[in-house]
Amino acid sequence: MLELTDVSKTYRGGVQALRRTDLVIQPGKVTVLLGPSGAGKSTILRCMNLLVQPSTGTVRVEGLPALAARRSLREHRRLTGMVFQHHQLILRYTALRNVLLGRVGYQRLWSVLVPPNKTDLRISLDALDQVGLLGKALDRADSLSGGQQQRVGIARALAQQPRLILADEPVASLDPATARRVMQLLHRVCQENGITLVASLHQVDLALEHADRIIGLAHGEVVYDGPAADVSDADLRLIYEGTPAPTHEDQLAAAAR
User: Fold this and answer.
1) Which CA distances in Å does 73 have to 34, 67, 99, 250?
2) Which fold would CATH assign to domain 2-79+162-256?
3) pLDDT in tens, 210-219
4) Nearest to 183 by CA among 164, 163, 169
5) Region(s) of the chain under CATH 3.40.50.300
6) β-bridge partners, 213
7) At 115, is the secondary structure helix, strand, or coil?
8) 44-93 per-position pLDDT tens digit
9) CA distance 114 to 187
């Protein structure tokens, strides 16, 4: 379980990206942060592993001491995989070498200078196999398609053997058909490995298709939080237009004018 209490973020210049927010992320579920650009999705996602330091509030992880301690934060990040919009691969490295970077948190500093051990190699090859790219293990990342590169990014996160994966707009740079396939893959591998997934998305159809829970954000504030199956057109208008759907009384008043 991951808990955010009174978390907010104001950037330099007084730009408030996230208003004070309380959230609990339950294990084993797929949570999608939905909202327009600038709504605060990436900020709240990166507060979850403290890549962005909150201006107020605390982030707590079940089973770990306070994350203010360096050792606790290191353990939390080691158990939290990250999938980025633009892959963040080293393009001159092979797919396998990129995935092996997911094992860095389990190594001593000097060990990056020697060949990978058998355990790290096995885990990384298995991760590539899970995303359907075992046959591309020795291909350079820059020879792969955009969808394949993103699958390598997912494999790198899997190689961490995480409890949680944070995916920041993981399919935004892909064409619609590839985006759907990559999102299906991400959902499947998280399910099969018992990994909690929190993803930020723009695509409403993909969010509703894959999420157990939708957290809708507008102007740095949570405006919807509930099951994906319960999201209505009125909820989507609230998320994307920032205005609540009219009530029955509002409609009657408008008709009388």
Assistant:
1) 27, 5, 22, 49
2) Rossmann fold (3.40.50)
3) 999 999 999 9
4) 169
5) 2-79+162-256
6) 31, 227
7) coil
8) 999 999 999 999 999 999 989 888 888 999 999 999 999 998 888 999 99
9) 34
